[in-house]
Amino acid sequence: MPTLDKVSLDISVVLGTSVMPIHQVLRLGRGAIIELDAGEDDDVKILANNLPIAEGTVVVNGNRIAVEVKRILPKSPEMR
What we know:
CATH class: Mainly Beta
Structural class: mainly beta
Mean pLDDT: 90
Low-confidence stretches: none
Number of strands: 4
Largest sheet: 4 strands, antiparallel
CATH superfamily: SpoA-like
CATH architecture: Roll
Radius of gyration: 16 Å
Strand content: 35-45%
Number of domains: 1
Shape: extended
Distance between the termini: 22 Å
Order of helices and strands: EHEEE
């Protein structure tokens, strides 16, 4: 499968979101804490190239953090 070696895919995990005015964003400094609209037991969204593909949960094992995929989302029209 040498052609798959050339495929680029960005994977992101969204833990939650927050809305704030731009003047607050500009004042953020190192170590700033931003409250999210999600709790510790809420599912996370898994994105591939900014398109939602799955939902999962955060798993902490010692000093390692991982995401366990719980549900694969149906393909959106953009992905077909």
